[in-house]
Specification:
This protein is an alpha/beta fold and 270 residues long. The chain has helices at residues 199-204, 209-224, 229-236, 244-254, and strands spanning 7-8, 13-14, 19-20, 25-26, 31-32, 37-38, 43-44, 49-50, 53-56, 61-62, 67-70, 83-86, 91-92, 97-99, 108-111, 116-117, 122-123, 128-129, 134-135, 140-141, 146-147, 152-153, 158-159, 164-165, 170-171, 176-177, 185-188, 193-197. Helix 2 (209-224) packs across helix 3 (229-236).
């Protein structure tokens, strides 16, 4: 079904079954598969493939060379009807690739709203991305990665499968992210080492100075205490019940995960 207001270049192939919303623009030499849904106001520039069971949210813009909704690159991919769901108002730049999920792990790759994917970044199967995230050029997310709201990943960084990146974390360019990164954490290097808190991001998010000072104190107690990271976090929880950002970090640490936690020491040399 193609809305009457959609504008589609005659050189593009729209397969039967695709759903094309109002005011969608599709430029030259694009391929839209039979199980694709493009919501209203989506814009696809040129030489883009949107395939698989893929839905693209309202107002999202996709630049040349992107391949959206390709099969999982997992060796265990069952080739069944898994899906990719992309939210509203995302910008997907040149050469970006996003894969559908795998049946074995829920069958869906989920991307939220207002995200920016710069050139040649990659979102693998079964990833879960929140809102207002930036993946800079050549960022690589392996399968099953979770990236929470407002995280920023610097150019060329690579994230190990099943890793979690907390809300408003900042990953430096060319970093290797092998372990979970706490909310508001900053990670740099290869191997990646936690290097403090994203204070600039916290300030931009409207967190006031007294709260930032408390979160800094919480951070030191977690990573410089005598016990393990998780034991230290559990021991201080009651002290921060009235500080939402600190509790967010403590809850993140307490949650079950397939990966260990990044720290100022794990991965550091010397």
């Amino acid at each position: 079904m193609i809305a009457s207001s959609a504008k589609i270049h005659p050189s593009s192939a729209i397969e039967n079954g695709a759903v094309i919303g109002e005011n969608v623009k599709i430029g030259p030499f694009c391929h839209i598969g039979p199980n694709v849904v493009l919501a209203d106001d989506v814009e696809i520039l040129s030489h883009v493939a949107v395939i698989g069971h893929t839905s693209v949210g309202k107002g999202t813009k996709i630049f040349p060379g992107a391949v959206i909704g390709g099969d999982s690159q997992s060796v265990h991919h069952s080739a069944l009807n898994t899906k990719l769901v992309i939210g509203e108002n995302c910008t997907i730049r040149e050469g970006v690739t996003m894969n559908t999920g795998t049946v074995e792990h829920g069958g869906a790759t989920i991307v939220g709203n207002n995200n920016l994917f710069l050139a040649y970044s990659h979102v693998a199967h079964d990833c879960r991305l929140g809102n207002n995230i930036i993946l800079s050029n050549n960022v690589m997310l392996a399968g099953h990665v979770t990236v929470e709201d407002r995280a920023i990943l610097g150019g060329g960084s690579a994230v190990h499968q099943f890793t979690r990146i907390g809300r408003q974390a900042f990953i430096g360019g060319l970093s290797a992210v092998s372990y979970d990164v706490i909310p508001y954490g900053m990670l740099n290097g290869n191997p990646g080492v936690l290097s403090g808190l994203n204070v600039v991001g916290m300030t931009r998010a409207g967190i006031d100075r007294p709260a930032i000072h408390r979160v800094r104190r919480c951070y030191k107690q977690i990573f410089e205490g005598d016990g393990s990271i998780r034991a230290n976090a559990a021991a201080i929880r009651n002290e921060y019940l009235d500080c939402a950002p600190a509790i967010e970090i403590l809850d993140f640490i307490a949650a079950e995960s397939d990966r260990a936690l990044s720290s100022p020491n794990r991965g550091a040399k010397g």
